[in-house]
TrEMBL record:
This is Pentacotripeptide-repeat region of PRORP domain-containing protein. The lineage of its organism: Eukaryota, Viridiplantae, Streptophyta, Embryophyta, Tracheophyta. PANTHER family: OS01G0228400 PROTEIN. PPR repeats lie at residues 49-84, 85-119, 120-154, 155-190, 191-225, 226-260, 261-295, 296-330, 331-365, 366-400, 401-435, 436-470, 471-505. NCBIfam families: PPR (TIGR00756).
Amino acid sequence: MRPIPSIFPFNQLLGAITKMKKHYSFYDSTVVVVVSLIKLINSAGIQQDLSTFNIMINCYCQLGRADTEGFAVFGQFLKLGFHPNVVTFTTLLKGLFLQGKKIQALKLFQKMVEYQYPCDSVTYRVVINGLCKAKDSNAALTLLRLMENRNIEIDVQLYNMIIDGFCKEYNKTNEALKLLELMRQSGVKPNVITYNSLIYGLCISDQLNKAIKLFKDMISQGVMPDAHAYNTLIDAICKKGMLEHAQELFDTMVTKGTHPDIVTCNVLMDGYCLQGKMERAKRVFDSMVAKGHEPDVFSYNILINGYCKAKRLDDALQLLEDMNCNGLKPDSVTYNTLIDGLCMVGRLSTAQDLFKDMQGHGQNPDIVTYIALINGLFDNGCFSEAMELFYSMVKNGLKPNVLIYDIIIRYMCKSGKVNEAKELFYSLPNKGLQPNARIYTTLINGFCKNGRLNDAENLFAEMGQKGIIPNDHTFNFMVQAFLKANDSSKAVQFLTTMAERGILRHAETISNIVDMLAADDPNNENIDILRNYFLK
């Protein structure tokens, strides 16, 4: 009779399989196979040890089933007399955090501390990382202090996790900066990842000057910025419209020996496109190609969007052709941008051809595509075609949103079909949609333009009853309608109400109304009321 083999070589093989990179498309099925193999090994009479059970728990955790099968295996090996080790608990903690079960993970960790189960630096790292990913960086910081009290070594990676967590939470960048100082005081040297997180946090919280200062501080501390640091800062500078500064930083990047990547070029190109400087944007694009960087779909989309905004549709369409020639598949953003741009300049026929073309290339139109084309058809007076496309969209299984109904209601009002617009508006809740300030304003404007001021006032009152705050356009439409109806008293009364509610903030609007009233009747008593109440 053959001796039963040791479990050890099986553990080595199974453990290696579960450590394969998760980006492999077959990873989940491989993990399932590992679980099946362990069960097969068990049925063959090969005795499992703690490592085998830990591998099995890890498999269930990777499959997002830590809270069910993971703990079932945990209970099973406790019954068999095995004692969990630090790997067991750390694996379960990681699995719970992966599932988004922060509370359960913290309860398990507290039990570990309470019953003095072993915790190593990996355990703390898993919990801190889980808390930061769950946007609870304050709790992660508390745990870091606990580690300090227990004389557990804290390395730069742990600090980086919490700093990055704070930077990604709303209004917590100052806490991240304080932690940077604490880090330095503790003798832990910040690295490029530390600075990258902080620069990103400062940029997204609109603290560009601080981000630039930190960037300079980074260099003075002997930490060389990488492409990510430059990209983040160049992007933020471009968004502020400071293109010359962005170009200077780009040039510095090259001079200092940091190679711009495709993201750098995309960011700079987008900055030029936002300013309508298409020749400069195209120069960046061509330079990217000349230096061996293959433009991606995002690169083309940026340039196509810029050309569409500049109403240079032939240039935009040429880029689409270039994409196809270069074997790059346009995505829905490419088509949506082009269709919207074509509709804006009245090239409906080309837009409709492109709509068919995208489907022929396996790209299904989404809600944004339909909105662009439906709006374009309405803009060009093709009411029946627009509605036909709308019904086609619904038939194809796409659920209309409030924005698309806003477009339809606007054009119903424009063509005098105010009753139909009103009926459609009040049918929205039955369709699972709640009207917002924008669509209320659209219908109010429709009522005003069609001389139905009572309906407009009632709808405005309804907004207040439902807690929907009117925007500047809402009261501007109302005031203009009252003035057009020669009811300046009502206009002033309405403006006063708006001011009392804290909605009216633009003195320029009042100044324009004063000028209008004075032009019609210089002695109008409401002029003094407006001047004294709003413009003093």
